[in-house]
Amino acid sequence: MGNFRRKPSADARSAFEMEIAKELSSTLDEIADGRIKVQHIESDFANLPRVDFAMDIDADGRSVRLAVEVLRYAYPRDVQGAVWRLDEFKHAYDPDQFGDLILLVAAESLSPGARDLLRRRGIGYFERNGNLSLKWRNWLINVERPDPPSVRKEAASLFTDSREAVVHALLVNRDKWLSGGELAAMSQTSQYTVSVVLQELTRREWCESSGAGRTLRRRLNEPRKLLDAWAAQWTMRKEERTSWYFFSERPDLLLTKLTDKIESSNPAFDWAFTGTAAANVYAPLLTSVDTAEIIVPPGQAEDLARDMRLKPADKGANVVFVERDGASLLFRDPVPEYPSYFASPFIMYLDLLNGRGRNKELAEHVLKKLEL
Hints:
Number of helices: 14
Helix content: 25-40%
Largest sheet: 8 strands, mixed
Number of strands: 17
Shape: elongated
Radius of gyration: 27 Å
Strand order of the largest sheet: 1-2-3-4-5-6-7-8
Structural class: alpha+beta
Number of domains: 3
Distance between the termini: 49 Å
Strand content: 15-25%
CATH class of the largest domain: Alpha Beta
């Protein structure tokens, strides 16, 4: 790789840019099997708008310049500024003098929304984990690698503890403009927790704002993206599940009979049906379901099963207790035909993503009814 031409007074940011330049150069060399050769890299441009650096390369005997803007952890709002600077560079660029031009954003990591924005604008991107998207003439380079642990941790942090209760409240009230105080009350969390979640969603451009100060309100404008992100984390969670058997001559009356048993046990905690049977009541699709899933707070399953006189069952179980609290029991609803509590449609949808039977098909049916 050629020398990185930069003024002697390099600061921490310029050092980071140099690291990115070296890693981009190495990645190009690795995946192009010698067909791309980096000639030199520079960051000072006479008579051209400034970008972080440009990389002059030889690609199959043709001179090509990559104009690169460098970011760290970037979301759509962060990327937009880089796009403007690259566009300015492009408008002043003379291909007859310097060769073909490719615009590219390089970053420690980019959010899915940031990558989508760049693809729509026809701008390439590079991430330090090796992800690379680049189009030039008849070349198409598209390398996708797993996100680094820091990015996975950041994405997961939106759905931990009380934060997913805020996410749940936003999805349920997706068409409403809400204050931080209203969201805190709905989600039964603190205003600090609400603020953390809203800040992250604003950076991803998944919610919009109106007003300022005491009149500030937020509204979710990308409910499907938020639900998809929650689903990706939901399928990786671990929870306590126990299986039981309850005698019922008619499977179609299973939920009704279980409700009678639960209510007669008079539990001092919230509970809710979820999974296939509950989802099929909310969005009918399957002709019959003979198993019920019930959400109860952690540590309550065995006591409730004993009070209901259920039998433990490794095989042939028709009742499953799922031990959870927090967001799972928010916004539970009674259903008119059933004297029961059902988890919210969002929790039912997430619980159908386990790949069992026709749950995937039912999940899509629930999603369609949610009209996101």
